[in-house]
Specification:
This protein is α+β, with helices and mostly antiparallel strands. It has two domains: about 10-145 and about 275-365, no CATH class; about 160-245, Lipopolysaccharide (LPS) transport protein A like domain (lipopolysaccharide transport protein A fold), CATH 2.60.450.10. The protein has helices at about 10-45, 55-90, 95-100, 105-140, 240-245, 255-265, 275-295, 310-335, 340-365; strands at about 160, 165-175, 180-190, 195-205, 210-215, 215-220, 225, 230-235. Strands 1, 2, 3, 4, 5, 6, 7 and 8 form an eight-stranded antiparallel beta sheet that branches. It is elongated, with a radius of gyration of 27 Å.
Length: about 375
């Protein structure tokens, strides 16, 4: 039996079922508590918009819950690991399994297999559900919880620089006979950065010479005068491709679309470090669930009556949370080019894989 990676079929199913139920229970508890706290801080802002009702609160919850599941599922696996192993230890089941000839790795094997299934399910859930929820929620938040865009071509708030000038818009639509911007503001600035004119318009249409602002209001700072010409051509150097590239949100794009966005950024000569770091993290993030049984394993071994079970549980929890802290820090470093993107996404995973394996071997094997 010691040559087999897994224990008996009965014991494998027993441990996997116990672990799975605890993952679900911890995840449901975390999501419900965090969703209630989120609604307490956001419901007033949602209901303050004219026309919004209780149905909009449910809509917000339906969009927010997938994001909470994505973020806190690895935490749930960590806490479920500690709860499962502490329970087995207190009931002397770990001692019985080791007395039957099982190694620490064999005891953990069903938990690691379950975590691998959770990681695969998390990846699919993130790509099919979370990306869509994130895109819709981001658009809704940028519209201050007003009416959601009616077309899929709409993208969120635009902020681009054309030489010394600045172009902002509420939304961009690539459909129709020509690309359009809505709720547009254009700031003309002097070479030293001072605003000389502010031009506001409800609509701007892309033409051959730039963006044609329809029925604009032009405020000139130097003379403090206001004029309303029929149209004004602005931002000749900003193309629809610039706007589409600027609106790429890696959390709202599935892996295959993000790969295309990275290629478009690279072809345009733009920096791709942030997108590449998030691309690789879409794979390493779900796989973090596989680490949790290894990092929390210290809680499952040792004598339950030695008085060190609580200390061991705290050590396992500390190792798990240290991974999440370092993972977020490395991803932030990768986003602004401090680390290579691949290293930023994968270094914490392999580092804590080695740490967890070292702790397990040194203490139990």
């Amino acid at each position: 039996m010691t040559l087999d990676f897994f224990p008996s079929r009965t014991l494998t199913l027993y441990l996997a079922k116990m672990f799975s139920l605890r993952i679900i229970a911890v995840l449901v508890m975390l999501v419900l508590v965090l969703m209630m706290l989120d609604l307490l801080s956001t419901s007033g802002e949602i209901l303050a918009v004219p026309g919004n009702t209780e149905a909009d609160l449910w809509l917000y919850a339906s969009l927010r819950i997938p994001l909470l599941i994505q973020r806190f599922l690895p935490y749930s696996v960590l806490l479920a690991t500690i709860i499962t192993l502490v329970t087995l230890n207190q009931n002397s089941e770990v001692i019985a399994m080791k007395a039957a000839g099982l190694s620490a790795h064999q005891v953990l094997a069903p938990l690691i297999l379950t975590a691998l299934v959770v990681a695969a399910g998390t990846f699919a859930f993130n790509e099919r559900v979370v990306t869509r929820a994130a895109a819709e929620l981001n658009a809704w938040e940028k519209s201050k919880f007003g009416a959601l865009p009616q077309t899929k071509e709409d993208s969120g708030v635009i902020y681009l620089i054309d030489g010394p000038d600045i172009l902002t818009a509420r939304s961009y639509n690539a459909g129709g006979p020509a690309p359009t911007l809505r709720d547009v503001t254009f700031y003309r600035r002097s070479p030293n950065g001072e605003i000389t004119q502010q031009i506001d318009a409800p609509l701007a249409v892309r033409g051959r010479d730039g963006w044609s602002m329809q029925t604009p209001r032009v405020f000139t700072v130097g003379t403090a005068s206001l004029s309303e010409p029929a149209e004004v051509i602005v931002a000749k150097g900003i193309t629809p491709q610039d706007i589409e590239l600027a609106s790429v949100d890696p959390t709202a794009q599935p892996l295959w679309r993000l790969d295309d966005s990275i290629a478009a950024y690279r072809a345009a000569g733009r920096d791709t470090d942030e997108l590449q770091a998030n691309y690789w993290h879409k794979i390493s993030g779900p796989l973090s669930a596989v680490l949790m049984p290894l990092l929390g394993a210290v809680a499952g071994f040792g004598l339950a009556r030695s008085g060190q079970l609580f200390v061991r549980a705290m050590i396992g929890m500390a190792l798990g949370f240290a991974y999440f802290v370092l993972d977020n820090a490395a991803l932030a470093m990768g986003n602004f080019g401090g680390y290579p993107p691949f290293l930023a996404a994968w270094a914490p995973f392999f580092l804590f894989l080695l740490i967890g394996e070292t702790v397990l071997v040194r203490t139990e094997e």
